[in-house]
Amino acid sequence: MNVLLDNFPAFRDGFIGTVSITAVSSLIALVLGVVVAGFRVSPVPPLRYFGTAWVTLMRNTPLTLLFLIFFFVVPEILFPGMSPFVLGSLALGFYTSSFVCEAVRSGINTVPLGQAEAARSVGMTFAQTLKIVVLPQATRTVIPPLSSIFIALTKNSAIAGAFSNTELFGWQKLMSDKGYDIVPVFIWVALGYLVVTFTISGLFRLLERRMEVAR
Amino acid sequence: MSASVLYDSPGPKAVVRNRIYAVVGSLAIAALIVVSLMRLADKGHLAPEMWDIFNYSGIRQNIADAVVATLKAFGLAAIGSLVLGVLLAVGRLSDHQPIRWAATAFIELFRSLPLLITIYAIWVGFLTDYSMWALAAGLSIYNGCVQAEVLRAGVNSVPKGQSEAAYALGMSKTQVMTTVLMPQAVRSMLPTIISQLVVTLKDTSLGFIILYPELLQTARLIASNTQVNGIYPYVSTTIVVGTIYIAMCLLLSALATWIEKRGRRAKTGIKVAPGVQTPSIPMVGAVPDSGGGGAGGAGPTADGAAGAGVSKD
User: Fold this and answer.
1) In B, which residues are within 8 Å of A109 by CB distance?
2) B232, closest residue in chain A (CA to CA)
3) Per the database record, which ranges form the ABC transmembrane type-1 domain (chain A) (predicted)?
């Protein structure tokens, strides 16, 4: 009990940090994932190869290694001095985008063939077919896997805490360095994460129910 | 499959347009790579001395030790997670309500917590001096919960008649689970189990944070201790270590796909078996040919049937 009350401002900052890094990186992951999924089904071979390479690379790299690359290699290529928040959310977003891409691609596969064929026979281009006909219908099947992907993203954001970001894992580390007993600290941090993950799964369940009407 | 449905087979205009897109797209990607390489070269990260450090036997030994340490933690975690997974899955399917509740609560709690939090708490709270065991324990708990859910799905997907038949033969609950349900569940879920093992292998890199000297931690130590030309060789070490990680993960996932394919082949193999007898009757003399002839004889007939089906449609 004491550990929370004595250090409440730090805990609050950590909680807000977790929520904001999750929000920013899930936005990056969503946009990038849909774009790369579009690349992977596109009629232009180099873009397809790029998409496949992107997914294979990102999915088989440990996230910690990706963080290391973003904190030590990327500043050398781009301008140095980016904040750990930007670097962390970029690393998380890039990593998760490969999972989003695979979910979206499998969603595209579940849309009945007749839909795309009909769109083509009305004379739509590839971009129009994807944007107007296929992707809106794929959304419905993509939502359940996306929910678990974003929950995994929230859990992965703990690694950002080890790379000098203000968030809940950072708070746990700070408290145990200060000499507090680890068990209550663990329980409070666990509660913080449970709140975020339950909110995400609740939001997605709401979204799912909203989408169900269209069927 | 879906790709070909999404766009028409290109006509002359579309071919030209696609070619333009292809050239522009590959140029853009190539430009991105070239610019990053030039920036890295400007800062001296691509100098030969940077890569020469991997010729030192000390650093090679360090990397080899680190790979062994990573594999050690992975092996312990794999065994631990599979054992815990089986126990939790059986607990969750138990007939006794308290056991079921306890297993469900354990699974739901540790599955929804970040792995890093668990590992760190175990390390600080219980196993401060044994970072390898802390890492292995944390990985086992988290992945055990995931494997338990996978196994439970596998057990539930076994047709109900299987367990009913086993009970009708007079088997006990334990016998039904160990000799009838679990083997079938493991067989049908093997690809998923192995892909979760790939995740476990990737997550051993979290040992980095609890200072376990695995591959990533060693890479960081190498990079921050050897100064070449006045800069630290972070770029070269991350590229080398990243390649090792990706190679290990791809090997494991290749194993998963191989097992998946093998499982699929076994089913068709049962049907083909009687066809082997036929060629031995007409040609007795050609012994080495008979095997090939049998396979060839089975092939065309199957193809012919499939072809007929297609043409009828």
Assistant:
1) 1-2
2) A72
3) 15-204
Structural fold of domain A2-212: MetI-like fold (1.10.3720)
What is B55-267's CATH topology? MetI-like fold (1.10.3720)
Q: How far apart are CA B10 and CA B252, in angstroms?
A: 39
Chain A CB contacts of B116 under 8 Å are: 158-159, 161-162, 169
| pTM of the full structure | 0.79
Which pLDDT band, with edges at 50, 70 and 90, does B100 fall under?
A: very high
d(CA A101, CA A210): 23
Gap from A147 CA to chain B (nearest CA, Å): 13
Q: pLDDT exceeding 90 applies to what percent of chain B?
A: 18
Tens-digit pLDDT profile for residues A57-81: 888 888 888 888 888 888 777 777 7
Check residue B267 and give its pLDDT: 54
Using the beta-carbon criterion (under 8 Å), do A62 and B25 form an inter-chain contact?
no
Candidates B45, B9, B33; CA nearest to B228 is B45
Q: Which residues of B touch A173 (CB under 8 A)?
A: 120
The two structure tokens encoding residue A123:
């004379």
Which of the residues A68, A142, A156, A178 would you substitute to probe the B interface, choosing the one with the greatest number of B C-beta atoms within 10 Å?
A: A68
Tell me the mean pLDDT in the region B110-118: 87
